[in-house]
Each structure stands twice: as structure tokens, then as C-alpha cells.
Amino acid sequence: MAKPNTNIDYQQTVISIRDLKKSFDTNHVLRGVDLDLYQGENLVVLGRSGTGKSVLIKIISGLLTADSGEVMVLGKNMNNLDRHDLRELRIKVGFSFQNSALYDSMTVRKNIEFPLVRNSPKLTRGEIDKQVAEVLDNVGLLQTINQMPSELSGGQRKRIGIARTLILKPDIVLYDEPTAGLDPITCIEINELINEVQQLYHASAIIITHDLTCAKTTGDRIVMLLDGKFERQGSFEEVFDTNDERVKAFYDYNFTQ
Amino acid sequence: MDIPDSTAEEVPVKERHKLLKSLSQAFVDLYNVVRFILRFFKEAFIPPYEGKELLRQCYEVGVRSLALITLTGFIVGLIFTKQSRPSLSEFGATSWLPSLVSIAIMRALAPLVTALITAGRVGSSIGAELGSMRVTEQIDAMEVSGTNPFKYLVCIRVLATTITVPILSTYAAFVAIMGGFLNVHQNEGTSYSTFITQVFEPLTFLDFEASLIKSIVFGFTIGIVGSYKGYNSSRGTEGVGKAANSAVVTAMFLVFIEEIVIVQIVGWFR
């Protein structure tokens, strides 16, 4: 499926990262990353496993702290936020986890309303139910509302995880490996859902993946993380139009598997 | 030519390094535990209050432990009375049995038995539950959705055990005394009212107070240890198992240490 037309405002940067560095002991994962995400844009971050893609979005969401560098999210510097400001910011930045991270002791309904109830305590029961039903309808899983996460398939869990992210109507959505571990048909459905989210919620997104079909289908722009830095960026064709062996190997691996 | 035996010197150096490393790790752990406890006091009593979740956790800790506490408490009371009888009867002092039973149960057995059962049943479950939530990123998911997972998961569970263990301990004392009554009634034909009068005769306000404080401390310890181990668990499913196991062992160990310390302190006031 081709990428639908999107309204990207290149004048407005929602995430701006400069010279970001992060190490774990002697493992230097990010070695000076620069990145801009524009309003309404789907940016795909490609890279092999263990290259620090997930670390990057965990720093953006405040789950990890950077060793050095500047991370500006919606105009706020992540290095200078107190707990209250960080909480306020997190409501505007949704995070869809690789393994969905659904609360396994709660039903789908409770999972989705959990962030809403805690962040909007004045909402009535009726308003909460309406919003939960709306977001579940948007991901096409209204019928699962009373099911437990253990009763759902992998693809359904991913969708519910995305729905839980969308309930707070975030300005930015961070997807961590949205198609990992799914069959090709479900992957296509998830890719379509990511595009629908972009159209419906007008949210910007960073999509972390090593799945080139996902990258091609969902990305307005693609950046490639190699050896802790963004080495290539542009459209899908621009990124892979190179003689760099590392990039070619990545492409060949994806399309010969 | 004699070749110097380098390994003879290397071994103590290696041992010393290992010892220093584990010692420094122990201090780091202690520092982290203290920070964890301080964070609990900082966050537990500020809004928003999760009353509904607290009630649910109190139900999980309290009501679901009742059957085990009833059985264990009753048997402890019954057996303790039965085993004490021969020694007392040698001196013709079986009439002291109710007093002996009440002192032993109120001062030591009820809080201790309750704490050990709760550590085994609840401490492990808190460790496993939070550990599993940590490794499956559910705690991170809470954090990124603007919810404070420490407050929602840790504070609620620690408060629940701190509130519930004293109640369970009081209930365990009552059931154990009933176990003692059954034995005394069978052998001496003592009436219920006489038995109860004799039970309360030797007890002072300090006994009730000490028993209550002890139970509160035990409950807090079980909750905080279980939460600390689970909240900080890592290394996948293996880490979850370790967190659950370590929560029980550490909580039980600390309960015994606290028992000794509190008995010593109460002794100064007696």
C-alpha cells in the first residue's frame, strides 16, 4: 500500500536532538545523534538490532537520560524538566512498546482507560466509556473491550497498545518495532493503522524498525542509524541509493529473507 | 633455578578484590534501599490517593490470607497449650496455662507467625507481580502514560501490608487463644468466661501496644522488601523468580531481626 498524502509542517519542529550521546558502561550506543522531527511527519529510524534505536526513543520519552547532548521535545528541554513537567510532557508523547506492554491483570477496557482516568480525573463515567469505545473503534477492535490481554493475538495486542497510547490524544507517537514478531498480513494491517493514526490524529511519529516494508509504507522520511550516528536520511529510495556496504547488506538481508 | 610461585600471591589479592567488590555492592544496595524507603514516605501521603486500589490490595493481602492464618493460628494455640501442659503439671500449675498461652501468643507468637505467613504468601506474590511487570515493560508503560508507577504500585502495596498485617495478627491471636481454650476445656473443663478472664489477667497495655507496633513494622517490612525486589528486578523470567524468592527470604530474615530488636526495646520499658 502506498503512503497516503500527509500534511507536514516543515516550519514547526516537534522534536529536535543535537549531539546526543549515550553509553552503557563501555558500550557507546549513541555517538552524537542529530535529529529533527516535524509537525505531522512520520519519521522512520532504521538500523540493526542493538544499534540504539530503542534507546533513542526511551531518551525522548524520559525513560532513560542522555549522557550528553540536547533533546528538545515540544519546545521543552528534557535535561531541565522536573517530575511534574515531565509528567505533563509524557501525556503529549505516546509510546507504543515492542511487546505492547499491556497490563495483563486488566481487561482491554481497563487497560485503555487507565491513563485517561489518571490524567483526567474530572471525566464522568459516560465520557470515559465514550472515549474508550471511540479509540477502540479507530483501531478496529471494539469487540475485544471486555477481553483479557492473554485472550488476544499478537496483532490485536499491538493494536490495543496503540489504542492505549491514542486515548490521551498525543502530539507525538513513538512506535518501538511495531511489526516485530507479526505475520506479513498483520504487519500490513499495523502499517495501515500507523498511517491512519497520522491522518486521524494529526500526530507526528517516530517509528523504530528494521522492517523495510514497514519503513517504506509508513515513513515520510527515513534515517538510518549506523555505528551510533545517523549516516543516511531522506526518502526510502534516497537512503538505499548508495554504495555503502552496510546499507546494501541491510537492504539485501530484508528482501532476500 | 627456582621459579617464584606467583599464584600463591595472586589468590589472596583476587580474594581481597572479590571481598571489596561485594562489600561495596552491599553498601550500594543499602543506599538504594534507603532511597526506596525515603521515596515511599515522600510519595505515599500526597494526593492523588488511590483509595479503591488500596482497598483491593488490602483484600488481596488480608481476606485471601484468612484461611491460612486461621488454620495456622488455631494449630499453634492448640499445640503450644498441649506441649506446655506436661511441664506445668509437674509443678501442679496447669491452672496457669491460660496465662502462659496468652502471654506467649500476644507477645510473640501471633505477630511472628502472621508475619512469616504473610511474607511467604504476600511478599513473594508482590515480588513476582512487580518483577513480571518490570520485565514486560508494564511499569515503563505506566510511566510514559503520565502515571507514577511507584505511587500506584509500590506505595499502595506497602500501605496495604502495613495496615493488614496488624489486623491479621490480632485475628491470629484470637484464633490461637481459641485453640488453647479447646485444649484447656477438654482437659480441665474450664469454662469460656473463666478462661478468657485468666487470659487477660497477666496482659498489660504494653503487651498490646508492643504487639501492634511489631505487626506494623513487620507489615511495612514485608511490603517494602517485596516491592523493592520486584520493582528492581531484571534479567527476564529468571529475574522474576529470583525477585519472588529473595523477597521471602529477606523479609523473613528481617522479621526475625526486628523481633529481637523490638523485644529488647520493650524489655527496657517493662
Largest interface by Cβ-Cβ < 8 Å: A-B, 25 and 15 residues
Low-confidence stretches of chain B: none
What percentage of the residues of chain B does DSSP assign to strands (E)? under 5%
Mean pLDDT of chain B: 91
The helix-and-strand class of chain A reads alpha/beta
Number of H- or I-type helical stretches of chain B? 9
- Note the gap between the termini of chain B: 74 Å
Rg of chain A computed from alpha carbons, rounded to a whole number of angstroms: 18 Å
The assigned CATH architecture of chain A is: 3-Layer(aba) Sandwich
Helix content of chain B: over 70%
* Distance N to C terminus of chain A: 20 Å
Can you offer a commentary on this structure?
- The complex is a heterodimer of chains A (257) and B (270).
- Chain A is α/β, with parallel strands linked by helices and 257 residues long.
- Chain A has one domain: Rossmann fold (3-Layer(aba) Sandwich).
- Chain A is built from nine helices and ten strands.
- Chain A has helices spanning 53-60, 83-92, 108-119, 125-138, 154-166, 184-201, 212-218, 236-240, 245-256; strands at residues 9-24, 27-39, 42-46, 68-73, 76-77, 93-96, 172-176, 204-209, 221-226, 229-234.
- In chain A, the strands form two sheets. A six-stranded mixed beta sheet of chain A has the order 6-7-8-3-9-10, sandwiched between helices.
- In chain A, helix 3 runs parallel beside helix 5 (154-166).
- The longest helix of chain A is centred in the last third of the chain and has 18 residues, at 184-201.
- Chain B has 270 residues and is mostly helical.
- Chain B has one domain.
- Chain B is built from nine helices and no strands.
- The longest helix of chain B has 40 residues, at 149-188.
- Chain B is globular.
- The mean pLDDT of chain B is 91.
- Chain A binds chain B through residues 61-63, 87-88, 90-91, 93-95, 97-99, 101-104, 114-115, 118-119, 121, 164-165, 168, and chain B through 48, 133, 136-138, 140-148, 152.
